[in-house]
Specification:
By secondary structure, the chain is α+β, with helices and mostly antiparallel strands. The chain contains four helices and five strands, in the order αααβββαββ. It has two domains: 34 residues; 114 residues, 3-Layer(aba) Sandwich (Trna Endonuclease, Chain: A, domain 1), CATH 3.40.1350. 38% of the residues lie in helices and 24% in strands. A five-stranded mixed beta sheet has the order 1-2-3-4-5, with helices on both faces. A hairpin with a 6-residue loop joins strand 1 and strand 2. The chain starts with 10 loop residues before the first helix and ends in a 7-residue tail after the last strand.
């Protein structure tokens, strides 16, 4: 190594390579871009309940990633069937199809109870279509994530119901 110097290593290099730092950085960047978009772009013409739903799906996505899921798809739609699957991800060696339900109140019925027979049937069809496209067979399950926003708290309360029934 005559005449060639090694690049200097910085203490921060190791920190930026850690998975936790990468997750925090990614989450911070996405949330910052969302904030900038809300400040700069014209107000969304989506109804309030749809904006709340989008926010709930985003918070559920980051919550599941933090819980160890490896997310592979968001808002997956099949060309053959109606409906969509909000999130698809791996938890260890199990493929999880995730339906996210968001509420601003617990007064009427729970968010998880809103996954009715019709929605379960749609999710089952789209999940089967997704699985057909995979080269290997694998274990899979259906999860429901409930996201609640309380007016006094900016942080959502999130509950994960693993292995929910898809029986229609």
């Amino acid at each position: 190594m005559c005449g060639k110097s090694q690049p200097k290593k910085h203490a921060g290099d190791k920190l930026l390579r850690s998975p936790m730092a990468f997750r925090v950085l990614t989450s911070s960047i996405i949330r910052s871009l969302d904030w900038v978009a809300r400040q700069v772009l014209p107000a969304s013409r989506l109804p309030t309940h749809l904006r709340v739903g989008v926010r709930g799906e985003e918070d559920a996505y980051f919550f599941l990633r933090k819980a160890g899921y490896t997310m592979v798809a968001r808002n997956y739609r099949s060309p053959r069937y109606r409906g969509e699957i909000d999130l698809i991800g791996w938890e260890k060696d199990v493929l999880c199809f995730v339906e996210v339900k968001t509420r601003t109140s617990r007064d009427v019925k729970s968010a998880a109870a809103a996954v009715d027979r019709h929605k379960r049937r749609e999710v089952a069809q789209v999940a089967r279509e997704y699985l057909r496209g995979m080269a290997l067979s694998c274990q899979w399950r259906f999860d429901v994530v409930s996201v609640y926003y309380d007016g006094s708290n900016s942080r959502p309360q999130i509950e994960v119901f693993r292995n929910a029934s898809l029986a229609a």
